[in-house]
Amino acid sequence: MPRDPVEMYGFQWNLIAFSEFLPGHYRSCIKVEETWVCVSDSCFNGSPVAATDMDLKGYGANLLLFEKCNPGS
Questions:
Q1: Cα(45)–Cα(66) distance, rounded to whole angstroms?
Q2: Eight-class DSSP state of 52
Q3: Does 33 or 14 have the greater pLDDT score?
Q4: 21-33, pLDDT tens digit by residue?
Q5: Is 4 helix (H, G, I), strand (E, B) or coil?
Q6: Nearest in space to 72 (alpha carbons), one of 8, 9, 2, 11
Q7: In whole angstroms, what is the distance from residue 64 CA to residue 3 CA?
Q8: pLDDT the model gives residue 25
Q9: What distances in angstroms separate CA 10 from CA 1, 6, 15, 34, 49, one per listed residue?
Q10: Are 27 and 20 in contact (CB under 8 A)?
Q11: Both ends of the chain: CA-CA distance in Å?
């Protein structure tokens, strides 16, 4: 997972969420402060799985959500 902002369209962006389709259901991962929280629609039990260091290469992300960085950050 990129820890540094990425450059797109002349601006800096931080990845803040992604979603992937697994056979029969979706899983979404959302960055909450410095932790990634993953929730699967097929087995959500009120206790999302948290991961502090994810590698996006291990996921088949279908949707990436970025937040534009503030100038000077």
A1: 27
A2: S
A3: 14
A4: 888 888 888 888 8
A5: coil
A6: 11
A7: 15
A8: 84
A9: 21, 10, 16, 25, 34
A10: yes
A11: 19
